[in-house]
Structures are given as C-alpha cells and as structure tokens.
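Human: Cast an eye over this sequence-structure pair and say how the chain folds.
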Amino acid sequence: MPSHNKTGRSKKLGQFVPITNPMAKSAAWRSLSGGAVKVYVELHSRYNGRNNGDLSLSYADAAALLQLGKSTIKRAFDELTEKGFIIPMRKGHFYGRRAATWAVTDRSIDLPKHAMATNAWREWKPASQKLISGTEAERKAA
C-alpha cells in the first residue's frame, strides 16, 4: 500500500509548524530566547489554515504545557511581539474569562478581514550589530 495519495501528498504526515530557512537564518529568530521559541511553536501549532488572528494561548495554559513560569511566558509573548513574529489581535480579560487572541505574521490574517502575511520579523534589527545572519556573513566574507 503506497504511503501517498493520487496527488503525491503523504498520507502519514500530520500538521507541522513551518520554520522556513529565511526565518531560521534571520537575526530575529537567532536572538529569540528558548522560552520564546517554545511559545511560538505552541501558538503556531494552533493555526489550522483558517484561524490566523484567532489563535488563543493563555499564560496559564502555556506555563502548564511548556513547563515554564508565567513571568517567563509573558516575557516570551512580549519578545515575539517586539521581534515581529506575532501580533496581538484582541486583549484578554480575566473578568468574563476572555482569552487574548494572536496572529502569526508568516501567514495571512483570516479574521476579521483578510490581510497578507507581513513577515515583520524580517525588519527587526538587533540593538547592537553583533548578530549577523548567515547570508550577511557570507556576503562580507566574499
């Protein structure tokens, strides 16, 4: 029995979180803390192809799932926002038990209006120029 369908797509692979080469080699990605990477992967794994802009992950859920403290989770969300990986869409409220919602910037935003992916992380530059992405280092070496 073949492990792919008529169009050549695998039947075995499930959903995955894409971290493309340009993203992985960017100064923004390389400067992320470990907690921020874990939060990004968890938040992005909630994207189903139609719900960007309505991704929800509370600090308490993230702390329990990722085995990190709530203050570390808050710093991770702040870092991901500052470096352009996520955008806050709706502020959460403890009263009424309404969770904050987020959008990842490497996908188009589906709710409430369609907007193209911004890939804002490409524009982020470190305060000091000590971090150099692989492509910039290769250009300087040439």
